[in-house]
Design goal:
Layout: E1 32-39, E2 44-46, E3 52-53, E4 58-65, E5 70-71, E6 74-75, E7 78-82, E8 89-95, E9 100-105, E10 107-109, H1 119-122, H2 126-190, H3 194-198, H4 205-244, H5 249-270, H6 272-288, H7 290-297, H8 313-316
Antiparallel strand pairs: 1-4, 2-3, 2-10, 4-7, 5-6, 7-8, 8-9
Helix pairs in contact: 5-6
Length: 326
């Protein structure tokens, strides 16, 4: 098996290099031709067999460079390809004028949406183009002149309205500045509150309603906090009595009961009519105010923190703790 890259060649013993002469071929005349690999720049249809070849199809083409074909110094190239079905020759060239390609022979370019409506512009001659430009410029100048004549009075009115508006804005700004300066001076000299000075003047109905709602909310919040503080004081009073060792409400109730029994006995000694009247009075008071009766029967809840004693689980499991050495 021979090497893929041959570095040395075999020369036979009878090889004579003087017998090998150089043959010069005549220079190629006509346009320069190269074999290139290209992709179809547009979709086309073969005029011989009707085969469609879409944009991007790859071909082995011959690239021809004509010597005498130029556009504003730009070289024009011509390409020769063959149909993929019938092998008919198709020729197209570059078109620098329109920045596109043009089919010369063998095929017809398919219709593309972006090329619709451009046929008239492409077929327009130089004279037609000049006439169109002059006509457009004349129309534009005429419209400008008419607009200037028509808008002269409107511009004057607009300037007058702008001047009046600027004067009104300047007056309002001066008034606001003087008012702010007066309020600052009054607050600085006499310690007067700006809100009391304003007194709600200049406020709209919506702002007045919002201010009134804020005041009502502030009053409701103040009452709620006051009630909470009073409730907290009532809850802290029984806890202080327990700490000081004072008798609780049930004891007092019992003492009150003993006193009432003694008085009832004394009243019994006085007469049965007074005892019955006292019992009737107590029954009526209990019926009229059952909440007070329930309050005297049950002690008030205490919110004092109670520390629970920890259980010795090691003793339950039979674990003996080591005594520290003295």
């Amino acid at each position: 098996m021979s090497e893929r890259k041959v570095l040395t060649k075999y020369y036979p013993p009878d090889f004579d290099p003087s017998l090998v002469g150089r043959s010069r071929q005549p220079k190629q005349t006509g346009p320069k031709v190269q074999t290139v690999r290209l992709m179809a720049p547009f979709s086309l249809r073969c005029s011989t067999c009707g085969e469609y070849m879409y944009k991007g199809r790859k071909f082995n083409a011959r690239k021809e460079t004509p010597v005498d074909e130029r556009y504003l110094g730009i070289q024009i190239y011509r390409f020769y390809i063959r149909c993929t079905r019938c092998s008919a020759e198709i020729v197209f060239r570059t078109d620098p004028k329109n920045q596109d390609y043009a089919v010369e022979k063998g095929a017809k370019r398919n219709t593309e949406p972006w090329r619709r409506g451009l046929e008239g512009e492409l077929e327009e001659t130089d004279e037609q183009r000049l006439d169109r430009i002059e006509r457009e410029m004349a129309d534009e100048n005429g419209e400008i002149a008419q607009a200037e004549e028509r808008n002269a009075m409107a511009e004057l009115e607009q300037k007058t309205a702008d001047a009046k508006r600027e004067m009104a804005v300047a007056d309002a700004l001066d008034e606001i500045r003087s008012r702010n300066a007066r309020l600052e001076k009054a607050q600085r000299e006499g310690g007067v509150d700006i809100e009391s000075v304003l007194g709600g003047r200049g406020l709209s109905e919506e702002e007045e309603r919002r201010r009134r709602e804020e005041e009502e909310d502030a009053e409701a919040a103040r009452k709620a906090f006051e009630f909470a503080r009073l409730q907290q004081k009532l809850e802290e009073t029984p806890a202080e009595e327990e700490v000081l060792g004072l008798p609780s409400i049930p004891g007092a109730a019992a003492a009150t009961g003993e006193g009432s029994s003694g008085s009832s006995s004394s009243a019994a000694g006085v007469g049965p009519s007074s005892a019955s009247s006292t019992a009737a009075t107590a029954t009526a008071a209990t019926a009229s105010n059952p909440a007070s009766a329930a309050a005297t029967d049950m002690p008030p809840p205490s919110f004092k923190r109670q520390v629970k004693k920890k259980k010795d689980h090691s003793a339950l499991l039979g674990i003996k703790k080591k005594q520290p050495l003295v």
